[in-house]
Amino acid sequence: MDSEALKPCPFCGGEAKYYYYTPRDHNIECESCSNGTCLHETKAEAITAWNTRADDDRIEALKADKAKLREALVGLTTDDDDPCWFDHAGNCQAHFITNPCEMAFARKALQETER
After folding, report:
1. Into how many domains does the chain fold?
2. Is position 60 within any domain?
3. Is residue 59 part of a domain?
4. Is residue 83 part of a domain?
5. Does 23 fall in a domain?
6. What pLDDT sits at residue 21?
7. Where are the beta strands (DSSP E) in the chain?
8. How does pLDDT run along the chain (115 residues), one tens digit per residue?
9. Is 69 in the same domain as 107?
10. CB 39 within 8 A of CB 27
11. How would you label 72-102 residue by residue, b for 16+ Cβ within 10 Å and e otherwise?
């Protein structure tokens, strides 16, 4: 059984990958968020454990939620071109927000989803 038989990650929808450590240590991990199975004695047991955990309907719902959240972040950050700048206490003076600045957090989250 190869990686095409693995369902996507039940947590983030990322691609799963099989790992072989020793003849009795096999597991599956998500390449995006690193969630995975515990170690199993055989490759087949690891794959079964991974695929049993995945719920395809839930994954699709999470992907839809992620798209909505991304769209909301884009809308929030598009109207504000001011770069964050911080005072001696670490408070964002551009947005008058205490550390951490939510605008900086939103911009960083958007950059990370573009990878």
Report:
1. 2
2. no
3. no
4. yes
5. yes
6. 92
7. 16-22, 25-30
8. 454 589 999 888 899 999 999 999 999 999 999 999 999 999 999 999 999 875 778 878 888 888 888 888 787 777 767 777 777 777 788 777 666 677 777 777 787 877 6
9. yes
10. yes
11. ebeeeeeeeeeebeeeeeebbeeeeeeeebe
Domain that holds residue 105: 65-113
Q: Is the pTM of this model over 0.70?
A: no
Tell me, yes or no, whether 43 and 80 share the same domain: no
One-letter amino acid at 114 equals E
Tokens encoding 102: 């939510």
Q: What is the pLDDT of residue 3?
A: 47
For CA atoms 88, 92, 96, 98, give the dihedral sign: negative
Residue in the block written with tokens 């096999």: 26
Q: Are 12 and 40 in the same domain?
A: yes
